[in-house]
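S.,

Sequence below, as promised.
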Amino acid sequence: MPLVRFYLIKGRTQEDIENIMKITQEMVVKDFHVDQRDCYQIVTQHESYEMNIMDTGLDIERSQNVLVISITSRPREKSDIENFYADLANGLSEKKLVEKNDLVINMTINGDANWSFGFGEAQFLTGKL
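The prediction came back faster than expected:
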């Protein structure tokens, strides 16, 4: 945990997708202070006509390499979230996996009662986590 979903346009290589996932997990561990094994990632690929990612009036140009990362997480410190956004953008752009203008990140915050990691148990509430 957190749960990270990647939305991208079809056409990237398996290696690029795996590297996007790897770098994202590295930044999750670093900035959100979680264990390396707290890794929950899902990639969804779309046809180009299935993604319409605009710029909210910020004059940000997007390309076919646009990447939307949506994260569901327990509450995090504002500074940790800001560091994560910057570190992830820098890490992905340095490896030429996505340009910063093509990266959109969204965080949805929820609480301990909103998670079950298996067996129909709320491990955060039962004290197992």
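The first helix runs from residue 14 to 32.

Coffee later?
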